[in-house]
Amino acid sequence: xxxxxxxxxxxxxxxxxxxxxxxxxxxxxxxxxxxxxxxxxxxxxxxxxxxxxxxxxxxxxxxxxxxxxxxxxxxxxxxxxxxxxxxxxxxxxxxxxxxxxxxxxxxxxxxxxxxxxxxxxxxxxxxxxxxxxxxxxxxxxxxxxxxxxxxxxxxxxxxxxxxxxxxxxxxxxxxxxxxxxxxxxxxxxxxxxxxxxxxxxxxxxxxxxxxxxxxxxxxxxxxxxxxxxxxxxxxxxxxxxxxxxxxxxxxxxxxxxxx
Length: 259
Known about the structure:
The protein is mostly beta strands. Helices cover 2% and strands 54% of the residues. The N and C termini lie far apart (40 Å).
C-alpha cells in the first residue's frame, strides 16, 4: 500500500524491485525475518534500497538508489557481488543505543562485504560501520564521491583486504579508510590510487592495534595522528607510476568493469 516491498519469511528471493516515488526516509525492500537471501536481484528507488535483518545475504545484485543497505544492531549480513550506484552511502551497519561505544561485545557483528563495486556521488562515507565487531571488507572496488570510502567509528576486529580504492572521486573523496576509535584492524594487500593529495588510511585519536601490511599506493599516503599501537609490517609501497595490469583486473569481481 505504501509502494514498498516486505519480505516476511526466510527463503531465497530474486527479481526486480522498483520504488520510484516513495518517501526519502523509506526503504524500498524491507526484510522482516532472519535468514532471507536476495539473489540475482535489482533495486531501483529514489530513496533507500534495503533494510536488512540478521543473517541476510545479498548475491549478484544491482542497487540504484539514494541510499543502499542498512542494518541496525543486526548479525551475520553477507554481501557478495553487488553493484552499488548510490547518491549517498552504500552500506550502514550500526548500533547507536545503550552506550555502544563502551560495550565490549557489539550487537552489530559478524558481517562480510566482498566482491562488490561501489560508486556514490556525495555524503560523508560509502561504507559506515558504527559499533560493529568482526567485519570483513574483502576484494571490493571503490569509486567513491563521498569524503571517505570506509569509516569505522567505535568498531573492532576488522579485516580490510584486497580492495581497490580510486581516490579521485568527486566532489570531495580524499580518504579511503578512516579509523575513529577503532581497535584491532588489519589492512593488507589493498591498492590505493590517488591524485597526489589523497590519503589511504587515517587512524584517528583513540584508535589502537592496527596492522598495515603489503599495501600499494600511488598518490595516496598514510596519516598516523593519534594512533597508539601500530604494526606496519611492510611500508605502504609508493609507486611513482603504475597501471592496473591484467593480473589485477582478473582479481576484481566477475562481470564488473573498472573503466
